[in-house]
Structure formats: structure tokens, C-alpha cells
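To assess whether ligand presence alters the predicted conformation, the chain was also submitted together with zinc ion. Input:
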Amino acid sequence: MSMDHEIILKENNLSLTAVRLAVLEALHKHPHSDATTIFSIVHKKIATASKQSIYNNLNTLVECGIVREIKPKGQPSLYETRIGDNHHHIVCKNCHKVMDTECHAFAPCLSPMNTHGFVIDEAEVTFWGICPACQKTNKPKRRK
Ligand SMILES: [Zn+2]
Ligand SMILES: [Zn+2]
């Protein structure tokens, strides 16, 4: 997979640094990870990688559209390499597990009644619920 990542970086005129490639690889294997998780994965491979360099790389990758940033409320930003399909997310209110769900090809609720002249090309929807594992234990870890 790292071959693909090298091509993607080259296409975006980004230099192929070891940390940048490691960030992409970590995100590819662990979608919906936050920066802290990515840092701990990358740091195991590259001991010199700093937390700041992880943040910088994530920002650059998001700006170039290589990585998608999602911001569930009350949580740190999560990152993933699955981009361009405008898929949505289901988040467990209890353990914060995140799952992907396909986009419902512009369901009526995603078509604004009034676009105010905007050209709309994306809708961000987060579905909140309780994941199967948490339903079984039935013991909320985090109550608000
Ligand atoms: Zn859960
Ligand atoms: Zn996703």
C-alpha cells in the first residue's frame, strides 16, 4: 500500500518524508484515529517523530485533500484516508467507536430547502447511537 501513498504524495507535490508516509500508513490501517493515536503508532516505527510533526503532517494532508478530517462533537478530530465518497459516520455515544456508512445519494433531508445561492457539494452527517458491544455490557462508561 505504501507504493500508492508515494504516488498520491508525488501527485500533490508533497515530499516523501518517512513520517508523512508512516502517518498515511497508520491512517490506512486504523481509520478514524485521532492525532494522539497516530502519533503513538508512528512513534513506534520512527522514534524521532515528534507530536508536532504528526499534527503538521495531518494538517498538510487534510489541506491537500488526501486525508479527511471528521469532528464528532466533544471529541478530538479524527482522520481517515477514505476520501471523496462523502460517506457518513455512526458514532457510539458510550465508547466513541466510529463506523462508516454509505451516503444515501442525497436523501431528502440532505437537500437544503434553500441553498442561499451556495453550490453544495458536501453534507456532513453524523449518526449517534450505542454500538453492539456497549449494548451487551449495558454499562455506560461516560454519562453526561
Ligand atoms: Zn460503544
Ligand atoms: Zn469514515
